[in-house]
Write a structure and sequence with these properties.
89 residues, 4% strand, mainly alpha, binds zinc ion, two-stranded antiparallel sheet, 2 helices
């Protein structure tokens, strides 16, 4: 059975990767009885930052949403890309 992968349910911006397990497991679904929900890696990072610096990951009721740490994540991604470039170059 093929599962619908489609777009990240949290930001509705990024496409999900296959297999589903390479995406980030949402921090809102880490309870024992929770149904696993997967989000894109940027949202996974955003939830981690919300958890660390905010009041915890934004609940699914408020999805889709704009990433709380969007700017920070973009900066980090650019820096990581530059770092990889330095290593490879
Ligand atoms: Zn997302």
């Amino acid at each position: 059975m093929n599962e619908m992968i489609g777009t990240c349910p949290r930001c509705e911006e990024h496409s999900m990767m296959t297999p589903l397990e390479v995406n980030a497991l949402s921090r809102t679904t880490r309870g024992i009885n929770d149904f696993a929900v997967w989000v894109c890696s940027d949202c996974g990072m955003d939830e981690g930052l919300e958890d660390a610096f905010h009041t915890g990951a934004t609940e699914q009721i408020r999805w889709p949403m704009k990433r709380t740490f969007e700017f920070f994540i973009k900066e980090t991604n650019i820096q990581t890309a530059q770092l990889m470039n330095d290593i490879n170059g």
